[in-house]
Amino acid sequence: MNRLRIAPVLFILTFWVSLSSNPALLLAQSPSPEDQAQLEKQLKALQKQISELKQNPEIKRELLADVEVYAKAAEWILRHNEFYKPQYVKDTFQVLKTGQQRAEQLKAGKPEWTEQTGTVIFGYYSKIDGSVQPYALTFPSDYKEKSSHRWPLHVELHGRGGKRNEVFFIAHPNGKGPRKDHDWLHLDPFGRTDNGWRWSGEVDVHEAIADVKRRYLIDKQRITLRGFSMGGAGTWHIGLHYPSLWSGVGPGAGFVDFYQYQNHKDKLPHYQDKTLHIYDSIDYALNAANVPVVTYGGGKDKQLVSSTRMVEKAKSEDIEIPLYISPEAAHQSRMPAYQDFLAKLLEHSKTGRPGWPGKKQIRFITYTPKFNECEWVRIEELDEMYEPTLVEGGVDEESGNLILTTENVAALSIARNIAPKVELDGNLLPLESAANGLLPQVYFVKGNNGWDVLKYEDSKSFIENPNLRKRHDMQGPIDDAFTLPFVCVTGTGTPWTPQQNKWATSVLSLFEKEFDKWLRAKVPVIKDTEVSDQDIQNKNLILFGDPGSNAMIAKVLEDLPVEWTKEYITVNGKKYDTQNHGVALIYPNPLNPNRYVVINSGHTMHEKDFLASNSWLFPKLGDIAVIQFQKQKDGTFKNETVWAELFDSNWELPAN
């Protein structure tokens, strides 16, 4: 009889282990009908309070965000049915109660939470989509006694939980209350939940820091970035993408590339393989020369290899990254080695980054204009995208001049007051006196005979980018459009090809659904008749439909690198039938080349990628792709990428 019970018990245990080890498999249970009705009722009441508060022009926008973030938390957990445990229902009631209390306090002009210490939840409105996003800020126990003190800031990135939503984050922030022995403010960003701190998740870190700086006195020379597991992965890439922002960078575990972490043997298509250089941190190890990096991990943790690989890669460049290991520890953020790790980071925080002009010697690498700045130099343009691009050197002690060598750099700018002159790859050029001394940055462009310094008028022209070169925040791929302010635009006209228009509508619908769930915001959508000059000036336009249905597509089509008729789309010299093909692309908006236009695409990674691993959240379609679609019986579309490519640094298709 006992033997008959063994198999079911083993199955249950195995199934539970599978659920526990794979957050994607965690199942949610709906609240009881009574609780559901009560939660919805209280949410509507809070939303009404917020709507009334927004009518008062005297109320600061940042305080509205501090209230609205509670309504947003309840709205999202209800819409996506994310009640993973019974406690989530109780937490949602408490979130709504706190939101209502804050709304009442704000109406009375007494926002008490702004005077709280310990761990406090704040909110901000994202520039990307206007959504409200939360963060937690923990104050030292003696904060009120030192309120005029300029504080160090520690930014700690959370790991992947699989069941994290706004309610869980608000109810269980990483902060532990007043910290008697901690002489810093501690910021826990939400990161738009679990996305590897990529795309808008990465932007969330910067936006949360900016909001804290607006509210409190922060010592910008003493900002520490750290995190473990997924937070470690985020710390690796954000820390090394922006080496001049931090007094110290402290990743633990995580992953630092795609192929090794996923044990992926087959090379991805070239338009995906190249864009791995955006977030593969191992490629940016050289930037540890510009910021102190400290790492730690458990001796029994498989993810320790990420730290050891980064240490080895840095060592090959004569850069030391201290690594602290607890031999008996597994995958856990707190272990004996953590104390040594934290002590080292605190040393760097106490020292702080040097004041202006910062470090006088740099060794900087990037693969994209997206991450292009280190201390006093900005890489403006690359010769070839997604290739190693370097600037190394610094101020010569004898001459006082700046001596730099470059690789794969087509144009750069340097702060004028770092040195009298600059020697670029052997070309000695004026710096301090260049461009009549009228611009804070001096621009240099590489020509056939070496480097040239631009005069004042030429510099102003260069800034306008008349040759339509890939530049910072204007370099693609498609997914980059959603790290900046954007709006989706649907058509009101008659489609040239009804079937293709239905496909485009399905692409937008899927994007709305997945962005709402996985990046925690409603996609902003307007009609083509509603696009304003302000939208064109300030936002990336994400256009859906065809030239017949969408007037904005018709307006920009002539200047896009495709030909489009009712019967065919011609891309790279090849015709594709519009009855079962569509094009997805990103390109400088012909109506405003400082912003993108995107045709028929949202994010190119999808739910299966979010569920699988954060390392899969890389671009899937490059800059331009042709999609063959087939309508299924259930009304959805099956999509196949039949061709895709990356534009070169001139926004042109490669010759081959």
Automatic annotation (TrEMBL):
<dbReference type="InterPro" id="IPR050955">
    <property type="entry name" value="Plant_Biomass_Hydrol_Est"/>
</dbReference>
<dbReference type="GO" id="GO:0006508">
    <property type="term" value="P:proteolysis"/>
</dbReference>
<dbReference type="Pfam" id="PF00326">
    <property type="entry name" value="Peptidase_S9"/>
</dbReference>
<dbReference type="GO" id="GO:0008236">
    <property type="term" value="F:serine-type peptidase activity"/>
</dbReference>
<keyword id="KW-0732">Signal</keyword>
<dbReference type="InterPro" id="IPR001375">
    <property type="entry name" value="Peptidase_S9_cat"/>
</dbReference>
<feature type="domain" description="Peptidase S9 prolyl oligopeptidase catalytic">
    <location>
        <begin position="204"/>
        <end position="339"/>
    </location>
</feature>
<dbReference type="InterPro" id="IPR029058">
    <property type="entry name" value="AB_hydrolase_fold"/>
</dbReference>
<protein>
    <recommendedName>
        <fullName>Peptidase S9 prolyl oligopeptidase catalytic domain-containing protein</fullName>
    </recommendedName>
</protein>
